[in-house]
């Protein structure tokens, strides 16, 4: 059975001066995923996560999107989320926070790129569930802040957390831990 790697993070747009940097790192992440023949899981959303999912799908990686909506119509109209980056969409009908639980629990490894409050919710779920977590550092947001939060909050968990600014090394460390 293929390993399920979830990629979570910024669904919003990246500032234009950092767009090229992110595109290079996302390309490296896509290559790393493709070389390992994993299944990609995402929240079937926009922004960086859309970019990763679309590139992965174009590279032949199976991309499963976990939607907060209960149908394609709700996914595209109420949530205004795309459908073209996924090979398969699973409609949970659980809203954004409920979707996050299904998404994280479905993954063997959870990777974070940047990320805001929704990603923080996904991180806390992954941490509580004892997942293998990878944070792509120097991308901002959750990926860079969780180390400080873990040290400050002293949260106990069996989760294994890896930090690296190189997507290939980060994925390799997470796969080795699995």
Give the SSE map.
Blueprint (H helix, E strand, L loop, with lengths): L3 E6 L6 H21 L2 E4 L4 H12 L4 E5 L4 H6 L10 E4 L3 H11 L3 E5 L3 H12 L3 E5 L4 H13 L6 E5 L2 H11 L1
Parallel strand pairs: 1-2, 1-5, 2-3, 3-4, 5-6, 6-7
Helix pairs in contact: 1-2, 1-7, 4-5
CATH class: Alpha Beta
The biggest beta sheet is recorded as:
7 strands, parallel
Read across the widest sheet, the strand sequence of neighbours is 4-3-2-1-5-6-7
Going by helix content, strand content and strand pairing, the class is alpha/beta
Kindly state the percentage of residues in helix: 40-55%
Task: Provide the residue-averaged pLDDT.
Answer: 93
Radius of gyration over all CA atoms, rounded? 15 Å
pLDDT under 50 segments (min length 5)? none
Molecular structure report:
A 7-stranded parallel sheet has the order 4-3-2-1-5-6-7, with helices on both faces. The radius of gyration is 15 Å and the shape is globular. The chain starts with a strand and ends with a helix. It contains 7 helices and 7 strands. Helix 1 (about 15-35) crosses helix 2 and helix 4 (about 95-105) packs across helix 5 (about 115-130). It has one domain: 3-Layer(aba) Sandwich (Rossmann fold). It is an alpha/beta fold. Helix content is about 50%, strand content about 20%. Helix 5 links the parallel strand 5 (about 110-115) and strand 6.
């Amino acid at each position: 059975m293929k390993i399920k790697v979830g990629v979570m993070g910024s669904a919003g747009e990246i500032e234009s001066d950092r767009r090229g940097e992110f595109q290079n790192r996302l390309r490296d992440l896509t290559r790393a995923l493709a070389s390992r023949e994993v299944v990609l899981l995402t929240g079937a959303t926009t922004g960086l996560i859309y970019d990763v999912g679309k590139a992965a799908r174009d590279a032949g990686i199976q991309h499963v999107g976990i939607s907060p909506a209960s149908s394609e119509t709700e996914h595209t109209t109420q949530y205004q989320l795309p459908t073209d980056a996924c090979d398969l969409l699973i409609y949970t009908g659980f809203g954004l926070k409920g979707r996050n639980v299904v998404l994280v629990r479905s993954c063997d490894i959870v990777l974070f790129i940047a990320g805001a409050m929704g990603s923080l919710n996904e991180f806390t779920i992954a941490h509580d569930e004892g997942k293998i977590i990878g944070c792509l550092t120097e991308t901002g947001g959750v990926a860079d802040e969780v180390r400080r939060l873990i040290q400050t909050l002293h949260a106990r968990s069996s989760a294994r957390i890896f930090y690296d600014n190189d997507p290939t090394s980060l994925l390799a460390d997470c796969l080795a831990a699995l």
